[in-house]
Design goal:
- The structure is a single chain.
- By secondary structure, the chain is of the alpha+beta class.
- Among the domains are: 151 residues, no CATH class; 95 residues, no CATH class.
- The chain is 44% helix and 19% strand.
- It has 13 helices and ten strands.
Length: 386
């Protein structure tokens, strides 16, 4: 089986080509997708990836809507869909049964590429990774997506590169899946996880330190704390507490290693943040936790504009493929918006890109039609009887 080459498609749109350009070398190295039987693949990985990026970029409301577009829209039929077209059964078979390894590979490689291209907002703070979970509404037939009270939900666990504004890692579980175990899986040594109160675990704080992974985690205000050493505070600072402490009750849940605890006030509300970062000022620790809000902004944008709630597949693999395709689309948009406009991703630029693609496609198709008409007329003149 020959390896897919993305340059064969979407050559009719200059802007679409720019958006997809970062994938060219990645696709050359991607694992091959092979048929599991003697029957040849009806939808190769490139076709599946193309269709799902098109789904996330455009305003499709379901998998059936996407397939209808691939059949009826001239641009989608000629430059997105497989050459022989795509049957509904073949599309959903591909979603549910194959392609996951390829999507994981493309996502990770593209994430590495985006991290090398995009500038860092706060390099002095180190590699900051916000970690959080987000629920996705499921349907009753998704038996694997248990939540509570007969309600079905899936949950994504995402690591988000705060400095560059892009997703780093993704895991998918049932809705009642625990969040804390994914912190260690998402973080690499030397990185700092930025966590909300739901991730407070004194045992995990010790574990992360043993793995040489850092954290900045908001904790409950009533957490027991034993002060080992207090640090001086700056006048007129939002910080009212900065000390080396042990957290928890001795003999029950107390941390084995000492931590730093920073308390500060914003608009009359107190925040208590535990960290192992002694190399930064207390004000910088407060800033890091404030930057955690970026992952919430990402979740809201991602779900609203990249169709996370319009489920294409109901299997766990199919949903993960859909989510990975959405994250791949977001990474492509992040690189595109930076290189073309020097900006972060925005719906304004996404809509502008959509319009460019449509207009360029219409212009080139119109030119081709004119050339064909001229060619036919020339042929008729040559064969005309004098």
């Amino acid at each position: 089986m020959s390896r897919s080459v993305l340059t064969k498609k979407w050559h009719h749109s200059f802007s679409f080509g720019k958006l997809k350009h970062p994938l060219h070398n990645i696709m050359e190295r991607a694992p091959l997708l092979e048929s599991r039987c003697n029957r040849p693949l009806q939808m190769e990985f490139e076709d599946q990836l193309n269709a799902l990026i098109f789904f996330h970029l455009e305003e499709h409301t379901s998998g059936s809507h996407l397939i209808q577009t691939l059949k009826e829209d001239v641009f989608a039929r000629e430059h997105i869909a497989p050459k022989k077209g795509i049957a509904k059964s073949s599309f959903f078979e591909a979603m549910n049964d194959r392609g996951l390894d390829q999507f994981l590979y493309v996502f990770q490689e593209l994430q590495n590429q985006a991290a090398a291209v995009l500038p860092q907002k706060h390099p002095e703070l180190g590699q900051l990774v916000a970690i959080d979970g987000s629920l996705i509404d499921a349907v009753l037939s998704m038996t694997w997506a248990d939540y509570r009270g007969g309600v079905k939900k899936a949950k994504t666990h995402i690591g988000f590169d705060i400095n560059r504004g892009i997703p780093r890692k993704i895991f998918l579980t049932e809705g009642n899946g625990g969040e804390r175990p994914f912190v260690s899986k998402i973080l690499q040594p030397g990185e700092t996880g930025v966590l909300d109160r739901g991730y407070q675990s004194h045992k995990n704080f010790d574990l992360l330190q043993s793995e040489e992974k850092h954290f900045v985690c908001r904790i409950k205000a009533n957490t027991i704390k034993i002060c080992l050493e207090s640090y001086p505070l700056l006048p007129e600072s939002i910080v009212f507490y900065d000390a080396k402490v042990l957290l928890g009750q001795q003999g029950i849940n107390q941390t084995e290693g000492a931590l730093r605890l920073v308390g500060y006030t914003v608009k009359g509300k107190e925040y208590w943040v535990a960290t192992d970062r002694f190399d930064l000022t207390a004000e910088q620790i407060a800033l890091i936790y404030k930057l955690r809000w970026d992952i919430e902004t990402f979740f809201a944008w991602w779900k609203r504009h990249l169709k996370v709630y319009h489920l294409i597949s109901r299997s766990q693999q199919g949903l993960l493929i859909q989510i990975l395709a959405g994250l791949i689309t977001y990474l492509l948009l992040a690189i595109y918006c930076h290189e073309e406009h020097g900006e972060h991703v925005s719906i304004k630029r996404v809509r502008e890109l959509r319009n460019k693609i449509v207009n360029e496609t219409r212009d080139i198709d119109s030119c081709q039609t004119d050339m064909e008409l001229k060619g036919n007329k020339s042929t008729q003149n040559r064969h005309a009887i004098p």
